[in-house]
């Protein structure tokens, strides 16, 4: 209990001190806030039936030295794992699912590794991001394979208004240095532009500790260099017609530990680019066309050898939105080609998935509803049809209840299909059925939510020693469709404002269990929570963030335990003038020793200071 209570008590004491002279005030209703990802269309946040969170540009600016996964760790329904410090292999787990069971989009472009499954989070630069939308629950009926736990969409910065420059520079513990610059604006009403570049490097600390074993532990420092760029250009060709191009690119050169005396390192590159067009065909029909490419390029030089594995994805999407009064009918056609090229010849494969989908969003007085269906036809694993049905009712203008049911699936990765001595070409997709019910409240600056969900998965692909056909190439086991799992839980969220004091909190109580073995899924806690308070005083903002997690098991047999932990971060910003502000952070202020993966270190108490120019 002391693990949780000490930082929580400090947080509440700070909040109490700030709020002593604060009085509740009314702020503009959040009805103008919109969410795009939940329905592949612009929707007022108050009308979105799926549970969701939006991370604002202000929250990202306050993040300072943190990485994207550190920021996501503070959101409800999300846990993270990482093999060392920033720059090392990281995973994001949504609602008890795995890293491969969620979809990541960058400006609408799917980003993932076809060999490992899921996104390579360490390559996504936080400094290039404007805001983030997180939508929980099965969304395969809108986005296809892998959207079992949810969808996270990252939006890069856009331009509007007069030409403006932004720049930031900062330094921190472990030799951290960060620099960023950008230009954005518009030319009349015809052309909008934004271009941003960034660089960061860190000397770091040892990724491993002696628990990793004598053949993996290396006491050397494991740092990284991350260079990145993003751009967003949009042309208004005529009223109702527009076209544009958007891209993000990063190159991560990171050290890690895989041998006791070797300087192991990897070079990972993220590349996404999309060309899109939008046409308002008539008063009710809008067509959206996007052609995109997403690449994940990875080179590894380690004690066990050198390797190169590249994932190339070509993506095509045509979406038609037909507005029927307050309702919207969508008809979608998509194609996705995945191709892997690398030094492991057996993985040099490709597959194509062609998809068609339809959805309908209905609004009538206090009633809200949506229905969607999708078919994904793969050249490798065949046809899969998924669907979703959701209903919401406004008890009052402030209170709403929701209920939904949806199906989803995850495609087998190329490793699970083809990796020598591990993959089986006949492996089939994982499948899941999710039911949930939620209660939501929104009034002025206050929002509350409580959602109970149960996601039952079958055909899970796991590493097993009992292969369907024991061959000489599978002497040590294989990936095989053998397990069932139930991921259920209650997720609570709240935020409010009292005068100059803003409060935000989240609590997840979950039971992610492997139904085949009765064991808890690896690296998932039964409870995790976060709390933050931010006080505004003239030109300054002072904030405290706390993160709590219960114990977890590092392995599927539940024989190796990772202890629970609690963290406290402090931050502050000060506006030096209308364009220039200073930011400071003190992460892990209580210098807690904790683990996200057995045998791997995490940062101790560390600080960061920086200057931001032109950020609003």
Automatic annotation (TrEMBL):
Q: Which residues form the TonB-dependent receptor plug domain?
A: 47-151
Q: Where is the TonB-dependent receptor-like beta-barrel domain?
A: 195-588
Instruction: Please name one Pfam family that this protein belongs to.
Output: Plug
Sorted alphabetically, the Gene Ontology cellular component annotations on this record are: cell outer membrane
First and last residue of the signal peptide: 1-22
Where can this protein be found? Cell outer membrane
Q: Which UniProt keywords apply?
A: Cell outer membrane, Ion transport, Membrane, Receptor, Signal, TonB box, Transmembrane, Transmembrane beta strand, Transport
Give the membrane topology, semicolon-separated if more than one.
Multi-pass membrane protein
Some GO term, biological process aspect, for this entry: which one? cobalamin transport
- Name the InterPro entries on file: Beta-barrel_TonB (IPR000531), Beta-barrel_TonB_sf (IPR036942), Plug_dom (IPR012910), Plug_dom_sf (IPR037066), TonB-dep_rcpt-like (IPR039426)
Q: Which family does it belong to?
A: Belongs to the TonB-dependent receptor family.
Q: What name does this protein carry?
A: TonB-dependent receptor
Its source organism is Undibacterium jejuense
Q: Lineage, please? A: Bacteria, Pseudomonadati, Pseudomonadota, Betaproteobacteria, Burkholderiales
């Amino acid at each position: 209990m002391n693990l949780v209570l000490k930082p929580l008590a400090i947080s509440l004491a700070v909040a109490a001190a700030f709020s002593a002279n604060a009085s509740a005030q009314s702020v503009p209703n959040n009805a103008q806030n919109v969410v795009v990802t939940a329905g592949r269309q612009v929707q007022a946040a108050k009308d979105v039936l799926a549970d969701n969170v939006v991370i604002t540009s202000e929250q990202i600016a306050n993040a300072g030295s943190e990485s994207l996964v550190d920021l996501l760790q503070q959101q409800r329904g999300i846990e993270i794992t990482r093999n060392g410090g920033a720059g090392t292999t990281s995973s994001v787990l949504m609602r008890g699912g795995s890293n491969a069971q969620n979809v990541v989009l960058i400006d609408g472009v799917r980003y993932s590794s076809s060999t490992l499954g899921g996104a390579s989070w360490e390559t996504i630069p936080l400094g290039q991001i404007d805001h983030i939308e997180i939508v929980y629950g099965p969304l395969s009926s809108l986005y296809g394979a892998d959207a079992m736990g949810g969808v996270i969409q990252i939006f890069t910065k856009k331009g509007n208004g007069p030409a403006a420059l932004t720049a930031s520079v900062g330094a921190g513990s472990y030799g951290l240095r960060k620099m960023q610059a950008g230009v954005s604006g518009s030319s009349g009403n015809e052309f909008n532009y934004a271009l941003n570049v960034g660089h960061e490097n860190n000397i770091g600390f040892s990724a491993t500790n002696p628990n990793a074993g004598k053949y993996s532990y290396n006491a050397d420092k494991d740092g990284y260099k991350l260079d990145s760029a993003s751009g967003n250009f949009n042309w208004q060709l005529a009223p109702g017609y527009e076209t544009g191009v958007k891209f993000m690119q990063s190159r991560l050169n990171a050290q890690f530990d895989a041998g006791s005396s070797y300087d192991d390192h990897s070079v990972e590159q993220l590349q996404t680019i999309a060309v899109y067009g939008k046409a308002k065909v008539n008063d009710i029909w809008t067509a959206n066309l996007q052609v995109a490419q997403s690449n994940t390029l990875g080179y590894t030089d380690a004690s066990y050898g050198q390797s190169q594995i590249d994932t190339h994805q070509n993506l095509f999407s045509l979406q038609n939105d037909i507005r029927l009064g307050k309702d919207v009918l969508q008809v979608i056609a998509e194609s996705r080609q995945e191709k892997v090229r690398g030094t492991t010849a057996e993985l040099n494969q490709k597959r194509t998935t062609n998809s068609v989908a339809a959805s309908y969003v209905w609004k009538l007085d206090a009633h809200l509803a949506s229905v969607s269906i999708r078919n994904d036809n793969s050249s490798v694993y065949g046809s899969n049809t998924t669907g979703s049905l959701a209903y919401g009712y406004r008890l009052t203008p402030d209170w709403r209840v929701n209920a939904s049911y949806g199906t989803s699936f995850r495609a087998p990765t190329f490793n699970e299909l083809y990796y020598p001595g591990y993959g089986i070409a006949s492996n089939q997709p994982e499948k899941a059925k999710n039911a949930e019910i939620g209660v939501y409240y929104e009034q002025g600056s206050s929002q509350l939510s409580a959602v109970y969900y149960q996601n039952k998965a079958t055909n899970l692909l796991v590493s097993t020693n009992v292969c369907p056909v024991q061959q000489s190439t599978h002497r040590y086991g294989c990936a095989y469709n053998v397990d069932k799992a139930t991921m259920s839980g209650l997720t609570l969220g709240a935020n409010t404002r009292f005068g100059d004091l803003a409060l935000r909190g989240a609590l997840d109580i979950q039971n992610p269990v492997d139904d085949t073995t009765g064991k808890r899924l690896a690296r998932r806690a039964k409870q995790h929570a976060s709390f933050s308070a931010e006080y505004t005083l003239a030109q300054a903002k002072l904030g405290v963030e706390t993160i709590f997690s219960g114990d977890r098991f590092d392995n599927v047999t539940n024989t190796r335990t990772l202890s629970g932990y609690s963290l406290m971060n402090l931050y502050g910003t000060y506006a030096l003038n209308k364009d220039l502000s200073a930011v400071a952070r003190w992460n892990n202020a209580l210098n807690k020793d904790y683990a996200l993966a057995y045998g791997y270190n995490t940062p101790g108490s560390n600080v960061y200071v920086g200057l931001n120019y032109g950020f609003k």
